[in-house]
Design a protein that fits this description.
259 residues, Alpha-D-Glucose-1,6-Bisphosphate, Chain A, domain 4, alpha+beta, ASHA1/2-like_C, 2 domains, single chain, START-like_dom_sf, 14 strands
Length: 259
């Protein structure tokens, strides 16, 4: 695999993926531009009408570049997708880029496109494609490959944001959320070693847990994420040095969920 991320000054992120395909550019071009071929591997049902593209769900897009058989680029809502084909001996070097605003969703995007590109190759080879299992582990692999650090700090606050591979209800159960009671200590999975938690001040099932600490607060939130899992956001005020501990805690949780 050959993937990387580029962060832009405007806050957008570009995911780049390259694949060598043992098929000539003309054949690959048909597979990435014609709806009857896209139906075998693209993650949505595409209809093309002039420069307008509909995807069967979500916002429409439009074609921004069409230079056969070299470049095909189009939008999908606010995102930009670009496919570049270069001759590679008898085959094709495909460079795919996806530009988006949700940096923390990059691993979900990468895992999804990895599966799509695997299906594309199967279609080009004219062989069946079987949806893989263990996609949670693939997502976690891409967290490492792309170098996605979930933790940021400023003078007073640590913030950790991490896309998870399971829905909020499942995550809440794993964390012991059903045992969270305002006025009582938080369940241990909501804490880190060395932290002195105070009582829970607020709990909303599968959504939020908040408690006081010495000099600050800790707030866990489960919100809508990218793909099928919830997005976890932890904000710890009053102790910016807590970032490494929260980073480790979230990595442990993510690994448990993906296993």
């Amino acid at each position: 695999m050959n993937e990387n991320l580029t962060l832009h000054p405007d806050g957008r992120t570009t995911l780049t993926m390259q694949r060598r395909l043992p098929h000539p550019p003309a054949k690959v071009w048909r597979a990435i531009t014609q709806p009857e071929h896209l139906a075998h591997w693209f993650p949505a049902t595409i209809t093309i009408d002039g420069d307008r593209i509909t995807y069967g769900f979500g916002p429409d897009g439009h074609i921004t570049e069409n230079d056969p058989p070299r470049v095909f680029a189009h939008t999908w809502g606010q995102d930009d997708l670009r496919w570049e084909l270069h001759e590679d001996g008898p085959g094709t070097l495909l460079t795919f880029t996806h530009t988006f605003t949700d940096r923390h969703g990059a691993a979900s995007f990468a895992a999804g496109w990895h599966t799509c590109l695997t299906a594309l190759l199967a279609h080009l080879d004219e062989r069946p494609f079987h949806e893989p299992t263990g996609t949670g582990r693939l997502h976690e692999d891409y967290i490492a490959i792309l170098g996605l650090d979930p933790a940021t700090t400023d003078e007073h606050t640590t913030r950790v944001e991490r896309q998870l591979t399971r829905p909020a209800d499942h995550v809440w159960q794993v964390l012991g959320g059903p045992d969270a009671t305002p006025g009582a200590p938080p369940p241990a999975p909501f804490t880190t070693p060395g932290l002195q938690p105070g009582p829970v001040t607020r709990a909303e099932t599968a959504k939020l847990l908040e408690y006081d600490t010495t000099g600050g607060t800790v707030r866990w939130e489960l919100i809508a994420g990218t793909g099928h899992g919830a997005r976890l956001v932890i904000i710890h005020t009053g102790d910016p040095a807590a970032a490494p501990a929260w980073r480790r805690r979230v990595e442990e949780l993510a690994a448990d969920l993906a296993g």
